[in-house]
Write a structure and sequence with these properties.
The protein has 152 residues and is of the alpha+beta class. The chain has one domain: Roll (2,3-Dihydroxybiphenyl 1,2-Dioxygenase, domain 1). The chain is built from four helices and eight strands. The radius of gyration is 17 Å and the shape is globular. It comes from Hufsiella ginkgonis.
């Protein structure tokens, strides 16, 4: 059993394009600023401009930071369209371009084009039930720099 656990940490899966975890949970709120204040005051969540970041260390390399973002959006946001849902999950991925080729071969096409920012690359898909999802190939080093901006 123990050998299996160690073999998973050094798995050849590191080269396979895939989801590696939850990058963020995004949801609609009537008053995102007030909701962030409530969560901060009552649950101790430290806020940055976009929400609250949960920092953790990547299992296979405990020297690498990773982040999961909790982010309320205005309930009038168009960012979730064409989904009618009140939430969107952001998935951390590796090898985004290869993953998109794999999805295309399966007849699954992105809802938009890949966008790049200093902290990673993003693209959106619709799942079979009409949920918009975001794929994020992170640059955690640059993303960590954004965590110093605290919102009020």
């Amino acid at each position: 059993m123990l050998g299996y656990g160690f073999s998973r940490l050094t798995s050849p899966m590191d080269d396979v394009p895939r989801v590696t975890g939850i990058g963020g949970i995004f949801f609609k709120a009537k008053d995102p600023a007030a909701l962030k204040t409530w969560y901060s005051t009552n649950l101790g969540m430290r806020m940055v401009q976009s929400g609250s970041n949960f920092q953790w260390y990547q299992g296979a390399d405990s020297t690498k930071k990773g982040f999961t973002l909790w982010a309320p959006f205005r309930e009038t946001t168009k960012y979730f369209l064409p989904s009618e849902k009140q939430f969107m999950i952001n998935y951390r991925v590796v090898k985004l371009d290869a993953l998109l080729l794999k999805l295309k071969a399966a007849g699954i096409f992105p809802a938009d084009t890949v966008e790049s920012a200093s902290y990673g690359r993003f693209v959106h898909l619709m799942d079979p039930e009409g949920n918009k999802i975001e794929l994020w190939e992170p640059n955690d080093v640059e993303y960590a720099k954004l965590g110093t901006i605290v919102s009020k």
